[in-house]
Write a structure and sequence with these properties.
Length: about 475
């Protein structure tokens, strides 16, 4: 979730229009009209022309349906045909993110640049301190940086007395904590699946909305319209999203056609119990510390980039895993749909046979809008499985630590790392190298403020925290 901007509004409008097609308010063939309706000829185009704008929307919709732009073999193949293909298969795959080529072409390689504020001063600290002689004076009074020589050390920027040197980043590359995004020879970004940890930061920070996550909306609506029982598994962080009581919210979800609502907080209670027992065993056998395992983006980070830390990560399964087992036992033939705040769970369900689909809070909100469902007017509904206040607290930074501390009666020290970035990765690598940490139990969450700061959330983490605490109590 980020501050309000036009990219987010466009994304949410696409979601709502897709939902109106999927819930049969509009004919399936109308999916072909969405790009035309969202970018009419009467509207000032964002890019070079209205046709480019429409092409971008088409490829974004393709990506949402689970296709890559490079899957296109015939430009005349309509969106309705892609939808038909998507509905014939369960569409469950590890492919979660795709880059829309047509939208990704405006960011130049990140470099330092000399602006018009350069005074050509006599001091010339930029030239004097450049370690690779990448800066020279042009026409005797204006500095210029040779981007081929520049190593990006930033000394020139720091030393310029006029702040005339600025760094122009590539937003998605700059924010990716593991260097999983790079440009090809055509200037198009590519995501390396061997490096990507599905933290979702690139989605939030791309100013062109070129990085799109796959949706399961078509499959979820198909399930809701079938005779088969469909159950919503809601993440604890949902209680901080829709500004209403949990009963009203669950009633709104039921109004969409879900037969039952289950709180993943019920599985969080199991995770807390098992993880606290595991912590005791590890400390007793001599381990210096143990980290949490419920954030999938964090465990992917360790698996792909900090292998030596793997032995210190808890073996306890995630709350979603335990919750899906509970649901499977009581409703063996039901279709389970996870509803949560991030894309890492869309990747996690690839390994969970019982949970074929996942939705973000943004997608759930679009379903409410398309179905004309007002949460505050919904019939109050109770969840089939629930968790306590501590279990709901898993959604907040420090929540897992608090649950563990309570379970072990304060016998061990606990600490938190809230937000995976380059600095926290260096800290985690140090833990692995030294085989010790600052606390005996370390909670690690990919997003600042925990799950309340996920890329698929709707309101700010601070507001969400207040609402979640009120609902959890």
């Amino acid at each position: 979730m980020t501050g309000k901007n036009n990219t987010i509004l466009t994304y949410r409008q696409i979601l709502v229009e897709l939902c109106r097609v999927f819930n049969q308010e509009r004919p399936f063939q109308d999916i072909d009209r969405i790009p035309l309706e969202m970018r009419p000829k009467s509207r000032q185009p964002i890019r070079c022309c209205v046709h480019k704008d429409r092409a971008v929307l088409k490829y974004k919709i393709m990506a949402m349906l689970g296709f890559d732009a490079r899957d296109e073999e015939d430009e005349l193949f309509p969106l309705s045909a892609y939808l038909d293909v998507a509905l014939q298969y369960d569409n469950k795959s590890s492919q979660v993110l795709t880059v829309v080529d047509e939208a990704c072409s405006s960011c130049q390689k990140g470099n330092f640049h000399v602006t018009e504020f350069c005074k050509g001063c006599e001091a010339r600290p930029c030239i004097m301190n450049c370690p690779v002689n990448a800066i020279e004076m042009v026409d005797g009074h204006h500095a210029q940086i040779d981007t081929e020589k520049c190593i990006g050390c930033g000394k020139c920027e720091k030393l310029c007395p006029y702040h005339a040197i600025s760094y122009q980043p590539v937003p998605c590359e700059e924010v990716c904590p593991v260097g999983a995004i790079t440009k090809d020879e055509n200037g198009i970004e590519h995501i390396d699946p061997a490096k990507c940890i599905h933290c979702g930061k690139c989605i939030v920070h791309c100013p062109f909305g070129a990085i799109i996550e796959k949706t399961y909306l078509a499959q979820v609506y198909k399930s809701l319209q079938s005779e088969q029982k469909t159950i919503a598994l809601v993440a604890p962080s949902i209680l901080g999203q829709f500004r209403n009581s949990r009963e009203r919210l669950y009633g709104a979800i039921a109004a969409l056609g879900f037969d039952e609502v289950v709180e993943v907080a019920a599985g969080a209670a199991v995770t807390a119990k098992k993880e606290s027992e595991e912590l005791k065993e590890r400390i007793e056998k001599g381990d210096a510390f143990m980290t949490s395992s419920c954030c999938r983006a964090y465990t992917e980070l360790v698996h792909k980039h900090i292998k030596p830390l793997e032995t210190f990560v808890s073996d306890t399964a995630t709350p979603l895993c335990y919750t899906s087992e509970m649901v499977k036992e009581q409703f063996p033939d039901a279709i389970q749909v996870f509803i949560g705040p991030c894309i890492s769970k869309k990747h996690e369900i690839h390994e969970l046979d019982a949970v074929p689909y996942a939705l973000s809070f943004e997608e759930l909100g679009a379903m409410f809008v398309a179905g004309r469902i007002e949460v505050e007017e919904a019939t109050e509904t109770k969840a089939a499985f629930t968790g306590g206040a501590l279990d709901q607290g898993f959604a907040m930074a420090g929540g897992v630590s608090e649950a563990i501390k309570t379970a072990v009666d304060g016998a061990f020290t606990t600490g938190e790392i809230s937000g995976i970035d380059k600095k926290s990765i260096r800290m985690l690598k140090k833990f692995a190298r030294d085989k010790k940490a600052e606390s005996q139990f370390v909670e690690v969450m990919s997003c600042p403020e925990g799950c309340l700061g996920g890329c698929g959330t709707l309101i700010s983490p601070n507001q969400a925290k207040v609402l979640l605490k009120k609902n959890a109590e």
